Amino acid sequence: MTESHPDRQAASLVGAPIKQIAFVVDDIEAAIRSWADHMGVGPWSAYTLGPPRLREMVYRGETAEFSFRHALAWSGPLQLELVQPLTGPGIFADHLQAHGPGVQHIGIVVPDHAGACATLAEHGYTPLQSGAGFGLDGTGRFAYFEPPAGIGTVIELIDPPKARAEAEFVYPGGDA
Predict the structure, then answer these.
(1) CB neighbours of residue 16 within 10 Å
(2) Strand partners, 106
(3) Of 90, 86, 68, which is closest to residue 144 (Cα–Cα)?
(4) Which residues are paired to 142 by β-bridges?
(5) Residues 98-117: what's their mean pLDDT?
(6) How many other C-beta atoms can be found within 10 angstroms of the C-beta atom of residue 75?
(7) The whole model's pTM is what?
(8) Mean per-residue pLDDT, 25-38
(9) Contacts of 45 (CB under 8 A, 6+ apart)
(10) Domain span at 32
C-alpha cells in the first residue's frame, strides 16, 4: 500500500466526505429503469439543467452554454447520479466520447463553495466545468475539478440549492 497524502485529498482539503457517485450515460431513461428494475435503486428524480435556469456556465476556463439531463437517487447514505449530456461543450460529452458510459465523478457537498474551489485550485486541481442557479430560487452551484494525479475520476464540489425545482419525472412512481 502506498503512503497517503492528506494534503492532496479533495475530501480532506475541503473538510467534507464524499456524498455522491455519478455515472455518465447515453440514454438516461433506460439507465434509470435499469438501476431501478435490476439494482433496486430508486426512486429516481430526473431534471434537465441548462439555460435559462443554469447561469454562470464555464467549460475549461471559457464562458459556455451547455445542457444535460440528470437523475438522482439514494442508496443508503450515498447519492447516485446519472447524467446524459444534451447540448454544448462539456465534461459529460467528453467522457462519453473518450470512455463511453460509466463512472465519471464523485461529489462532495461543501458549506463554503467558493472557499472549497479556491482550496482545490491552490492544491493543483484543474477547474473543468461549473454552473450556478439550478435551484427553484436560483441557488445552487457546482464545480468540477480534475485531480493532480491518482484517483482517475473528476471531483465535483456541490453547494445544493435551498429548494429544488420539481422533478420532470420520478421512477418508479412516474413515467420514464
Answers:
(1) 17
(2) 21, 155
(3) 90
(4) 131, 158
(5) 96
(6) 13
(7) 0.91
(8) 97
(9) 71, 72, 73, 167, 169, 170
(10) 6-163
